[in-house]
Amino acid sequence: MKAKFGLFRLIVIGALMCASLFLTGCSKEKPAVRQGEAQQGETEYIPVEIPPTFRIARLTDEVQGKFEAFDQYVHDEYGEWIVIWADIAIDNLDFISVGFTDDLFSEGIWYSTGEMRTDKALMVRTSVSEGLPTRGISYLDIYGNRTYYYIGESGLDDSLVLVEFQNILPPEGEIITSESFPVEGTTVSGAFDGVITAQVENSGELNYLITDLCAQMNSDGGFEEYFSLSGAYTDGDLTVTLPESVDVILSRITGYPDGVYISDRNARRCSFSAIIGLFMDGSPAASFRLEYDDGDVLCYVSYWYVDRDVTLYCDNNLEFLMDLNLKTGWNRVYVISGPASHRSTTDPSAVDMIGMRWQFKKLITAEG
User: Fold this and answer.
1) How does residue 177 score in pLDDT terms, banded at 50, 70 and 90?
2) Mean per-residue pLDDT for 81-92?
């Protein structure tokens, strides 16, 4: 009887040990591996748990020789070529605009890559700011977390560096109070229908050589882009219809001195002040701008496109004055620049509209 009991006990203990080993094996964590690598003997791909390390450098023969392929993007045709890559394969990388108020934040994406192997890099032609950063990259990991880096220069040897930053967006709707902004009694032009008709002065011999029109859009993020305009220029007569929406980068309104109040810090805009006339081959011939210049004071009209109603105001800076009441769409902004002060306003009564003329200016490239 004892022998049978001992044998039964051994069988039970053995079964428990086998079960314990089986459960331990099932609960054991698999080590993390890099994306695209499978553990030996397995076909399952395990997600990346180790984040990629990004590198950046100016384009040289040595850097170019490290890679078999490039994803190229021209952001600024007058800039320099830079190369950005990761130490592991990734499936996304964004080249972004970086803005700043009290903190750095991403203003938007200029260009997105697809899959990036270790033998493939992103090559961008751009200009790197010597002051506050305006360009950067971002990466979205498999857990939905996005990491941001701005592009800067090393203080040791001027080489390029990527510095991680927290994307802290400006507060939504920083409302201007009646104490800080005199809303009542302010005359503004508001948005207009986007139709420009004018007689251009001093047009000269290039009148019959201009075949197309475009504008150079600018944003506070340092972005510039030419886009075609619907219209015509014939023997001094200029007619342009601005598009209802613009297919260019809009940036948050930044870069102004302290004391400028803004009703919504998430408002985005782009603008232009000159219309460019093009030769048949697409090269620039001349520019047209509505302006008045007596040698001491320059007044001109800038055309702003904003994505929402927004107000900007500043009256406590003697050298910089601003009173803009912008409506969604296109707005006329009157810029007055003198030897001791600068003012931007949407109030047409602030300028001498009678003295304003559309001026034809032959561009340097047209002289050849």
Assistant:
1) very low
2) 93
- The domain 54-165 having CATH identifier 2.60.40: the answer here is yes
The structural domains of the chain, with segments of one domain joined by +, span 54-165, 195-366
Q: Check pLDDT > 50 for residue 8.
A: no
Task: Of 184, 247, 220, 221, give the one whose Cα is nearest residue 302.
Answer: 220
- Distance CA(217)–CA(228), nearest Å, equals 10
CB atoms within 10 A of CB 233: 26
Query: What pairs with residue 306 in β-bridges?
Result: 269, 329
- The DSSP code sequence of 261-318 is EES-TT-EEEEES-EEEE-TTS-EEEEEEEEEE-SS-EEEEEEEEESS-EEEEE-S-T
In three-state secondary structure terms, 19 is helix
Report CA torsion sign: 71, 83, 226, 310. Answer: positive
Separation between Cα atoms, residue 311 and residue 326, nearest integer Å:
6
CA distance 160 to 193: 45
- Backbone torsion region of residue 291, taken as left when φ is above 0, otherwise alpha when ψ lies between -120 and 50, otherwise beta: beta
Query: Which residue bears the tokens 């004391």?
Result: 259
Query: Which residue in the block uniquely carries the two structure tokens 């229908």?
Result: 193
Q: Burial level of 34, CB count in 10 A (0-12/13-18/19+)? A: middle
Return the higher-pLDDT residue of 151 and 281: 151
**CA nearest to 249, candidates 219, 275, 294:** 219
Beta bridge partners of 191: 331
- Tell me 79's DSSP state: S
List C-alpha distances in Å: 317 to 2, 56, 294, 340, 356.
102, 40, 24, 11, 26
Q: Nearest-CA neighbor of 109 among 140, 77, 153, 65? A: 140
pLDDT digit string, tens, across residues 237-289: 889 988 887 766 677 776 566 567 777 767 788 888 888 888 888 888 888 88
| pLDDT > 50? residue 26 | no
